[in-house]
């Protein structure tokens, strides 16, 4: 029975597992996303998220703690400069795992693990307020109410006015010819 045994062993010895996770973490920091098996991705998430949290506090002690896990100077520099600056406002959940299906050779489940703030497709506008981005909601009622409140016309009236103006211009051009 595995009561209270929460560590994912990945079929490896302790030293082999720590080296594997260290290398995967360094590559994730360097490339911002990597493709690996689902089990390794889930184990890597629990390994790297506390390191990213430590990187928010840029002190010599925290750098040494992170270096003892990663053993890679370039990865530590990248983590404390680029990554820490992007995740400064995020309270956790720095990684995302996306399942990719099974691998052809051995039918292993593969997954893409990536740093959330470095994905431009999913991460657009996250954490920004509506006023800062200038985006409106997609509800038509909100636009009509906002336009009327500002003293302007409602959206259908504006469209009708634009259409009438365009028809007048076309008729004037025909008359000139």
List the defining traits of the structure above.
elongated, 7 helices, 177 residues, 55% helix, 11% strand, mainly alpha, 50s Ribosomal Protein L17, Chain: A, three-stranded antiparallel beta sheet
Number of domains: 2
Tell me what the CATH architecture of the largest domain is: Alpha-Beta Complex
Radius of gyration, taken over Cα atoms and rounded to an integer in Å? 27 Å
CATH superfamily of the largest domain: Ribosomal protein L17
Overall pLDDT confidence: 83
Notes on the structure:
The protein has a 3-stranded antiparallel beta sheet. It is built from 7 helices and 3 strands. A hairpin with a 6-residue loop joins strand 2 and strand 3. The protein has 177 residues and is mainly alpha-helical. It has 2 domains: 111 residues, 50s Ribosomal Protein L17, Chain: A; 41 residues. The protein is elongated, with a radius of gyration of 27 Å. Helix 1 crosses helix 2 and helix 3 crosses helix 4. Helices cover 55% and strands 11% of the residues.
